[in-house]
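Lab notebook page, bench 4
Experiment: in silico fold of construct C2
Operator: M.H.
Input chain length: 110 residues
Purpose: comparison with the prior construct
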Amino acid sequence: MLLSGPVIKGRQYQDKVPTANILMEERVPHGVYIGESFNIDGDSLGKSFVFVSDYAPDTAEVYITGYWRNDLYGKFLSVENLEKLDRDDLRNIYDNAMNAWEERNVSAMS
């Protein structure tokens, strides 16, 4: 599965990780996906988490792992090889993130 479109401005929350909000040319069903993001020249920007909500079905919120280089507003992006994550996948991701956080912070407090 593939999604593509221009990057538009989102709400720009200062307390969350930066994401690229893609105005999808063709809708993807709501859910959480993983894939790989590419620019218009076909250059890989990195592995990505993609969030499509039912309250904003035309927009995909894309977190590109490790991408902190450039402003992407107005640029055309595609996310390829989309794979929808199920509840078990999401639980594992959250559990792994919590375990990593606890290891860093509990050892720092000891």
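Observations: The radius of gyration is 15 Å. The mean pLDDT is 88.
Next step: discuss at group meeting.
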